[in-house]
Amino acid sequence: MLSLSGHKLGAPKGVGALYVKNGINLEKLIDGGHQERDRRAGTENVAEIVALGKACEIARENLSESQKYLKELRDYFITKVEEKIPIAKLNGSRTNRIPSNSNFCFSGIDGEALLLNLDAKGICASAGSACSSGSSNPSHVLTAIGLSPEEAHSSLRITFGEENTKEDVDYLVDSIVEIIPKLTS
C-alpha cells in the first residue's frame, strides 16, 4: 500500500489517496454506503479529489526542475549549518537523501526545546516523523542509522518546499545560531 497526503503536493489539506495492491483485503472503515469500493461510506469530496489529481499532474510536469531547486536549497542549508554550528552533525548521507530533506543532530541540545524556540520565530520544523509526533520515544529511523537515543532526541528535521528561498534558509540558520547558546547555558 501507499498513502499520499495532498497538501504535500499543493492540493488542499484533508485530501489524499491510498493505493492498495490487488489481493490486499481491507475491512470497512465506515459502514452504511458503497463508496470507495465498499470500504467506507460517505459522500466523496469530488472538488478536492480533482484538486489532488491536478496537483499530481503539475508535480509530474515540474518534477526535474523542482528536485533540482530543492536539492540546491537543501545543500545550501547543510553547508551553512556545517559552517556556522560546530556542534551540528548531519544525520545520514549528504547526497543519498530526498532533495527536500535534511536532518541534523545538535549534540547536547534538547530537540523539543529547539523546536519550541524555532516555532516562536515562525519556523516550522520537526524532531522526527509526523507519524511519531507526540511520542517521547526517539526516532526509530535515527536509532536504526546508529544514533544513540540522546542523539536522536537532539535532532532536527527540516523539509523545504518550492516556496522556500535562500533568504528563508539564512533566517533559519541564523535563528538556530541564536537559540543554541540559550539551550546550553
Would you kindly provide a written description of the structure presented here, covering whatever features stand out?
The protein has 185 residues and is of the alpha+beta class. Helices cover 44% and strands 12% of the residues. The chain has 7 helices and 5 strands. The strands form 2 sheets. Strands 3-4-5 form a 3-stranded antiparallel β-sheet. The mean pLDDT is 89.
How would you summarize this macromolecular structure in one to three sentences?
With 185 residues, the chain is of the alpha+beta class. Helix content is 44%, strand content 12%. It has helices spanning 35-38, 46-61, 63-84, 111-120, 140-144, 149-153, 166-184; strands at residues 2-5, 16-19, 88-90, 101-106, 155-159.
Topology:
Elements: E1 2-5, E2 16-19, H1 35-38, H2 46-61, H3 63-84, E3 88-90, E4 101-106, H4 111-120, H5 140-144, H6 149-153, E5 155-159, H7 166-184
Helix pairs in contact: 3-7, 4-7
The average pLDDT score comes to 89
* Sheet with the most strands, sense and barrel status: 3 strands, antiparallel
What is the number of independent domains?
A: 2
The SS-based structural class is: alpha+beta
Could you name the CATH topology of the largest domain?
Aspartate Aminotransferase, domain 1
List keywords for this structure.
185 residues, alpha+beta, Aspartate Aminotransferase, domain 1, 3-stranded antiparallel β-sheet, two-stranded antiparallel ribbon, 7 helices, globular
